[in-house]
Amino acid sequence: MIELNKEDILSKINFTDIKKKVWYIAVIGRPNVGKSTFVNALIWEKVSIISSVPQTTRKRVLGIFNDTDSQIIFFDTPGIHKEEKVFNEEINKQAMSSMKEASLIVYFVDPTRESWAEEKYIEELLSFTSIPVLKVFTKADINKKVLDTSKNLNISSVTKEWFEELLEKMKSYLPEWVLLYDEDYYTVQEMDFRIAEIIREKVFLHTKEEIPHSIFIDVTDIEDKPSILRINAYIYTETDSQRYIIIGKNWDLVTQIWTEARTELEEIFGKKVFLALRVKTQEKWRKNERLIKQILR
Ligand SMILES: Nc1nc2c(ncn2[C@@H]2O[C@H](COP(=O)(O)OP(=O)(O)OP(=O)(O)O)[C@@H](O)[C@H]2O)c(=O)[nH]1
Ligand SMILES: [Mg+2]
Question: Which residue CA neighbors atom 32 of ligand 1 most closely?
Answer without folding.
Answer: 139
